[in-house]
Design brief:
Blueprint: H1 2-41, E1 47-48, H2 53-70, H3 72-77, H4 82-114, E2 118-119, E3 123-127, E4 130-134, H5 146-196, H6 198-208, H7 213-233
Helix pairs in contact: 1-4, 2-4, 2-5, 4-5, 5-7
């Protein structure tokens, strides 16, 4: 079992390495450009908007969807059991989310140290007459620090990668009709909940007492979503 699990993890590593390198090469290029611009035209009044959290969330969601069709069939052809694939996939998701969270926040920290200008809020939140700019979701927590930023990015990345993984399994298992029907049910539930008010109240309750505990709970929800994917994965067949 140990060697089979190592084989699954190794294949994941080699399969996503190309996309991972391209993504971070683009990010590093933007990072270097930001430093060059600060050196050439920077000043005390210059503010750099540099946020990597949302790009890594999108990257995680896209990867969770893509691996269903690009990786799982080859693992099955290699002879890996679905149980090993199931265990190896969640380990890979955790490691992938952790590495992205660490790299994103390390680059943000490094940019603050290398540039004379302060990284300002890249996003605007308006609540009545009060307007707040923020650069990271962790800015809303009772204590904003480097560790909190990593926890926030890790939990959100893991949540998105598991949600889109199960969506990818739905599309693979039931085709376009079944996949879009599944997404449609989720969208309808969200819209109906917001219109009826119970979902809006749910979000208000969350943000009225917004702490780091929410992101621990979100990571647990991600694990719960992944547990549900087992029922689809065990019936996964080559097409």
């Amino acid at each position: 079992m140990g060697r089979e699990l190592q084989g699954v993890l190794y294949y994941y590593l080699t399969n996503v390495r190309h996309a991972f390198l391209i993504f971070w090469l683009v990010i590093v290029a933007i990072f270097i450009l930001s430093i060059v611009l600060d050196a050439l035209v920077g000043g005390e009044n210059m503010t750099i908007h540099f946020n990597l959290s949302f790009p890594i969330y999108i990257f995680a969601a896209a990867l969770g969807f893509i691996v269903v069709k690009s990786t799982l069939p080859y693992l099955i052809k290699m002879g890996a059991t679905r149980k090993i694939i199931y265990i190896g996939t969640v380990i890979f998701f955790i490691v992938f989310s952790s590495i992205n969270a660490l790299l994103a926040n390390d680059l943000n920290w490094l940019l603050r140290k290398l540039t004379k200008s302060e990284i300002g809020g890249g996003f605007i939140y308006t609540n009545g007459e009060q307007t707040t700019t923020f650069n990271h979701i962790a800015d809303f927590l009772e204590r904003d620090n480097f560790l909190y930023q990593i926890i926030v990015d890790l939990s959100l990345s893991f949540f998105f990668i598991t949600v889109f993984f199960i969506i990818g399994l739905m599309f693979y298992r039931f085709g376009l009709l079944g996949g879009f029907l599944f997404v449609g049910v989720i969208a309808f539930t969200f819209i109906y909940g917001m219109a009826d008010g119970w979902l809006a109240e749910f979000f208000i309750d969350i943000f009225s007492d917004f702490t780091i505990a929410f992101f621990y709970q979100l990571a647990l929800v991600g694990f719960g979503v992944y547990l549900l994917s087992f029922f689809l994965l065990r019936r996964y067949t080559l097409q």
